[in-house]
Each structure stands twice: as structure tokens, then as C-alpha cells.
Write a structure and sequence with these properties.
By secondary structure, the chain is α/β, with parallel strands linked by helices. The protein has one domain: Rossmann fold. A five-stranded parallel sheet has the order 2-1-3-4-5, with helices on both faces. Helix 3 links the parallel strand 3 and strand 4. The two termini are about 15 Å apart.
Length: about 120
């Protein structure tokens, strides 16, 4: 049974690239367009990991992480930020909210897969 990873990004091209990379490596992917969409889909799928953008409409990545961490059924799911933001303060805010890791865009597919494998074990 392949692991299910949710990718959350308001950019369709980024979602496509992340999904393609993950599917090529044998993962199943659930796509969400923003934090609100992600929260609604999280409960219907047995997601093992979340990759989320930081800057999105409706609900940003930090807010999404806080919501996931507050939910007892999802609070241990690893969440990796996938964002253009690389400032230390933003990383700190992400960590404080409960992010497991951080990948700065643009990224190489093998970099993404290395982080996914490390986080999922």
C-alpha cells in the first residue's frame, strides 16, 4: 500500500509538479488549493504527510499547520513547508506552529523526494 501525501498550493503548476514527482516515486497524492480545502480533504483521506505552501488565499500554510496540530486525529502527521520564503523568522514561525520541515522553492525533484523519504522513514 503506497503512502498518501497531500500537497497544498494555490499554484496549479506547483501542485502538478509536486504530484508528478511523488507519483513517479510511487506515492498517492491528494491535492488541495489552499488551507481550507486541505482541512476539508484531510478528514476523508488517510494522509501520511502534508506538503504545504506558505502564502495562499483563504488560509495560509501557518494557519493550516495550527489547525492540523489542534486536531487530535491529525496532530502527528508530518507537515513540510514548500515555499519561496527562506527568512529565518518565517521558518521559526513555521516551526512554532508545528512544521516538521522546510523546502525552499524552486526545488529539485530529488530534493523533494529525499525530504519525503526522510520524514516518512
Amino acid at each position: 500500500m503506497s503512502k498518501i501525501i497531500m500537497t497544498v498550493d494555490d499554484s496549479a503548476s506547483v501542485r502538478q509538479m509536486v504530484s508528478f514527482t511523488l507519483k513517479q516515486a510511487g506515492y498517492q497524492v491528494v491535492e488541495a488549493v489552499d488551507g481550507k480545502d486541505a482541512l476539508s480533504k484531510l478528514h476523508g483521506a488517510a494522509v501520511q504527510m502534508v506538503l504545504t505552501d506558505l502564502n495562499m488565499p483563504n488560509m495560509d500554510g501557518i494557519e493550516l499547520i495550527r489547525n492540523v496540530r489542534a486536531d487530535p486525529t491529525c496532530k502527528f502527521i508530518p507537515i513540510v513547508m514548500l515555499t519561496t520564503e527562506s527568512q529565518a523568522e518565517m521558518k521559526q514561525e513555521g516551526k512554532a506552529a508545528g512544521a516538521t520541515g522546510w523546502i525552499v522553492k524552486p526545488f529539485k525533484p530529488e530534493q523533494l523526494l529525499a525530504v519525503v523519504k526522510k520524514v516518512l522513514g
